[in-house]
Design brief:
Dna Ligase, domain 1, 3 strands, elongated, 2 domains, three-stranded antiparallel sheet, 5 helices, about 170 residues, mainly alpha
């Protein structure tokens, strides 16, 4: 009787581990297709591949503008022309298809040339070379982060660099 009791106690832990491994193997084997198709679903849902640049929908709420202490009585400047802020609002009204923000995805290990090409596609820089020179001037080429970044459509070059190098 002691032999059977010792055998059960000694092998009980081994049996439990084997059962857990069998269950885990069964779950993985039945779901391997879904696991392997996941990257394709992400790409299909995002309309692109790693590093793809795409516009965000215009459903993103606009940030509140700071309240100014100065009172503007006239919508036009002294010479009768619209100010820069008013021109921007008018341009947005005329071009409703123009996005307010852009989404830039930088994947881990992506080359600076690929990142530069994507930033040029957004229209923030004229060429890849201009982006690379600008980021080198700012000593920020080693600080570029991976991830998805939201860049306002009217950002300056400095703001773009600050956004993609932030944590």
């Amino acid at each position: 009787m002691n032999r059977i009791k010792n055998f059960l106690y000694d092998t009980n832990d081994i049996i439990v581990v084997v059962l857990i491994l069998v269950c885990a193997a069964f779950v993985i084997a039945t779901r391997v297709d879904a696991i392997l198709l996941y990257p394709e679903r992400v790409i299909a849902a995002g309309d692109g591949v790693s590093g793809q640049v795409r516009s965000l929908p215009e459903t993103i709420p606009e940030p509140e503008l700071p309240v100014s202490d100065t009172i503007v009585e006239d919508d036009e400047s002294e010479d009768g022309e619209l100010t820069d802020d008013e021109q921007t609002v008018d341009e947005q009204a005329e071009n409703p298809d123009e996005p307010l923000n852009y989404s830039l995805y930088i994947s881990y290990g992506q080359s600076m040339n690929e990142i530069a090409d994507n930033v040029v596609k957004l229209g923030f820089f004229e060429s890849r070379q201009e982006f690379l020179q600008f980021i080198d001037q700012k000593n920020a080429s080693q600080k570029v982060q991976s991830g998805e970044f939201i860049i306002p459509a009217h950002s300056t070059k400095d703001e773009v660099i600050r956004i993609i190098t932030s944590n």
